[in-house]
């Protein structure tokens, strides 16, 4: 249990909706939630992190509730080193091209650095942006294979960034900043919802006349860093205080950026057969099977009971064919062997995986990129999810995907609105994500849900 000292109007709902928190004294707590300056001062002196809620009237503004904590020596040192690299890069003069800035059709640099799941939910806005602008994409490296398959021709240029190297390799950071400084653009549109100090540095060095950001949240930065961000941007797009499903948030963002009323669908074209290198995969087009994807980005998002689920499922549906997919990291997640199970874990490229998704009867997936690929293809989808970013990435709104269902452990189902609020709220987010592990969903619950889909 996490011990809280709380002085805030949200106190009652906090303990009502989140049973894994217990009330405590300030001296003995793990976390302080307070707007009281004396309590904040005492907490910081004791090196206890503080969440300071922000309100608009009586409504808790999830986006602007921010964290106060004592700065760590390591974080301060890393920040100083990155600023030093940034300063050196900024001293290198870029020769201006006056003709470029007078071009009638303008160019926008898109920052899409939050990973493949976010990019899948964002990408349907691209055709609308292209009606008015040329586009340069700055993307997380993990999205490269997908972008090369589907969207490469949409962009004048693409810069892929390895975000892990960006954090750990100063030389890589320096080279990345140089690349961004050499871009020519009229606008920068940062699509990120959760701002980081890295996006601040990247923004600073991107060669654009006007820079636009989303109001976003302060889960990863403090209020001072946020105000530094504001100083870098000419315009801030406000997507509101509530938690929106990411597809809808991106629509609102692009509407505001273009100042236009748009209808944007959520879809993904089927992969073409000539894109498939492994021709054995094409044989699945004429087969009836369900696909089970073991892949996930974090341990708490990776379901560990697929062996038991599939064993129980095959006892009931003896003729059911199952295709197992995942990356090499998932080889030990499910070791069950059975004549009806085809194990392709670690053997597929992305094109082959998408082909299998689009031809299955049902896709059973963890809450990761495969969940959004399956839903974008409009396939029946069963998602197994923990408590991370509820409302933003799960569950899929019924009106958007009526054939998609998300399973959570019972504690989330019973307190969904409360967990949704705090799973997106600054410092609380990591506590919620770790508390609710996807593997706490019972195998029988998964089996019964699969059988409901197959009726």
Give the class-level CATH name of the largest domain. Alpha Beta
Low-pLDDT parts are none
Q: What count of structural domains?
A: 3
State the shape: globular
What percent of residues adopt helix (DSSP H or I)?
25-40%
Structural class: alpha/beta
Distance between the termini: 40 Å
What is the makeup of the main sheet? 6 strands, parallel
Folded structure, characterized:
The chain folds into 3 domains: 2-53, no CATH class; 76-258, 3-Layer(aba) Sandwich (Rossmann fold), CATH 3.40.50; 273-454, Glycogen Phosphorylase B (Rossmann fold). With 455 residues, the protein is α/β, with parallel strands linked by helices. The protein has a 6-stranded parallel sheet with strand order 10-9-8-11-12-13, sandwiched between helices. The chain has helices at residues 11-17, 37-45, 73-90, 98-101, 116-122, 126-130, 144-150, 163-168, 170-182, 197-205, 223-232, 246-258, 306-316, 350-358, 369-376, 410-414, 416-422, 428-435, 443-454, and strands at 2-7, 21-23, 31-34, 50-52, 55-56, 59-60, 66-68, 107-112, 134-140, 157-161, 185-190, 208-214, 235-237, 290-293, 322-325, 341-343, 362-366, 381-384, 404-407. The chain is globular, with a radius of gyration of 23 Å. The protein has 19 helices and 19 strands.
